[in-house]
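INFO batch 0412 | record 1 of 1 | parsing
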Amino acid sequence: MKQRGGDRPLSRRSGTEEGPVRRSDPPPAKPKLDKASANDHALDSIIDADKREALKLAPVSRETEERLDRYIALLREWQAKTNLVAPSTLPNLWTRHIADSLQLVDLAPTATRWADLGSGGGFPGVVLACAMAGKPDGRVHLVERIAKKTAFLREAIRVTTSPGVVHLAEIGDNVDRITGPVDCVTARALAPLHQLIGFAKPLLRQGAKALFLKGQDVEAELTEAAKYWNIQPQLHQSRTGDGWIVELASVERRG
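INFO prediction complete | emitting tokens
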């Protein structure tokens, strides 16, 4: 299984014809990609084009799209002061992060109540909350241990008017305190699979399904997890790269 220069030399005219030395036209300047450049208008057209590609991969309603637009605008505003995503991924915010998160909805089409462990900058938690808005029982629990990021998550939920509840807590200390039923538990770029299973176990015992976003090393993570847990994983290849989604319906600790 598989997942997820210097100046050119000056050119001279050939033969004996004399004339000024010509320099080839420089390529268009690329916007710099550091934390402080998230609001650089040079990125606007790039992000817009990426959005169009992302919505081909994961179509959404007009209402959800508008919520996601507000979320991305807020993320770019906060990115300059709080590192929410890797700066190198700014041109691909929609395909790398939004569509990557939205694909979970198709894997659990009847799920309306989610728990996202280690929400960070809101992937997939805030994206799922935007998608659940308007559903009668829609609710997403976002668990994050870093105060600055929880402040951002709360603002994102407010700005997008989405049904999210943000918990500032250590991941392992808070999962069993989530009140109400949960249909799906997810996590992205949080911890190795065997640790994620331990975090999610209280919710899995209550009937939730796990959907964990993983990278190219999923086979190694599954091998390691099998040392600690009896699992029957179902793998789904990501639409947005070389990654995988690990689906688990039940787990039991070995020994």
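INFO post-check: The two ends are 29 Å apart (CA to CA).
INFO record closed
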